[in-house]
Design a protein that fits this description.
The chain has 194 residues and is of the alpha+beta class. 35% of the residues lie in helices and 32% in strands. It has five helices and eight strands; from the N terminus they run E-E-H-H-E-E-E-H-E-H-E-E-H. It has an eight-stranded mixed β-sheet, with helices on both faces. A hairpin with a 2-residue loop joins strand 7 and strand 8. Helix 1 crosses helix 2. The longest helix has 18 residues. It is globular, with a radius of gyration of 16 Å.
Length: 194
């Protein structure tokens, strides 16, 4: 199971990480740390360049092994500016289920970037990776991420209680899902997503 190194949307270029992308990743995380810190365990106050470099190394290894496919989000106009990440990974090969995770830097939030990038990665999941089901796990209270799931037509399946430990506190997550036969009609309307 593999994914393409690069995919595009109307505004975005989603590219596989490489060894040169660590500094841009570090800058984007640093610029967004107060917001990311609330929802993501890896976004800790002491986040350093070494953390970004370790993520890139792990990402390259995971890609080779088919465990996860992480993409840097960029725009066509500003190819050197890291806008965030979007990732897809297999959860169950037998049931052909994958999961997507994403974040967008704070100063570019509310521009539809997460929705556009996630929509493209969903298509990759159904068409390239041949998943039957794609899921999102979103921390309860993360309204921006919930809006992405809603815009893309995901179904809210339920609450995963105490799903993730973040800074000493267990956080509940909502599980959302989208099935391959539900996505096809949505993909035709992708130009209407905002």
């Amino acid at each position: 199971m593999t994914a393409p190194d690069r995919v595009e949307t109307a505004r975005l270029v989603l590219e596989r990480f490489n060894r040169r992308t660590g500094d841009a990743l570090y800058e984007a995380v640093s610029a967004s740390l107060p917001e990311l810190h609330e929802w993501l365990p890896w976004a800790h106050p002491g986040y350093k360049r070494d953390d970004a470099a370790a993520f890139v190394r792990d990402s390259l290894e995971a890609w080779k092994e088919g465990r996860a496919f992480d993409y840097a989000i960029r725009t066509r106009n500003e190819p050197g500016l890291h806008l965030g990440n979007v990732s897809i990974w297999p959860v169950s090969r037998m049931s052909r289920t994958g999961e997507i995770g994403y974040w967008v830097r704070t100063d570019r939030a509310s521009q539809g970037l997460a929705t556009e990038a996630t929509d493209r990665i969903i298509r990759l999941g159904f068409e390239d990776l041949v998943f039957h089901k794609v899921t999102l796990r979103i921390a309860i209270g993360n309204r921006a991420s919930e809006r992405v799931a809603e815009k893309l037509g995901f179904t809210r399946e339920g609450v995963l209680r105490e799903e993730l430990l973040i800074r000493g506190r267990w956080i509940d997550h909502t599980l959302y899902s989208l099935l391959d036969h539900e996505y096809r009609p949505l993909s035709r309307a992708a130009g209407q997503l905002g």
